[in-house]
Amino acid sequence: MADVLSPAISDRICKHMNEDHADAVLLYAKVYGGAAAATAAKMVSIDPEGMTLEAEQAGTATPVRVTFDHTLQDSEDAHQTLIAMVRQARSQTHGE
């Protein structure tokens, strides 16, 4: 059974993404958040509608909101959605 996206689950997902998938978080900021000049990014929170990131651009931390294409049902939906988004972002950036 997957967990509801509570603040505690959001914190757990963010910690995991920031520690283990920083490259993916940066891609989310660049591709979906319009922060093309970002050199680093961290996931601040995730909720059923989207994720809030902090993108480092020209030495300044800028908040970036990325809205999902659907409302997430639970933590498993979040996991699958984040994987799909990074795959799509990688295909877009490598396809140019």
Characterization of the model:
The chain has 96 residues and is α+β, with helices and mostly antiparallel strands. Helix 2 crosses helix 3.
Summarize the structure.
The chain is of the alpha+beta class and about 100 residues long.
SSE run: HHEEEH
Strand order of the largest sheet: 1-2-3
Q: Could you estimate the helical fraction of the residues in percent? A: 40-55%
Class derived from helix and strand content: alpha+beta
The largest β sheet comes out as: 3 strands, antiparallel
Rg, rounded, reads: 13 Å
Shape estimate = globular
The portion of residues forming beta strands comes to 25-35%
List unreliable stretches of 5+ residues: none
* DSSP strand tally: 3
Topology diagram in text:
Layout: H1 7-20, H2 22-32, E1 40-47, E2 50-57, E3 60-67, H3 75-94
Antiparallel strand pairs: 1-2, 2-3
Helix pairs in contact: 2-3
Attribute tags:
3 helices, 96 residues, alpha+beta, globular
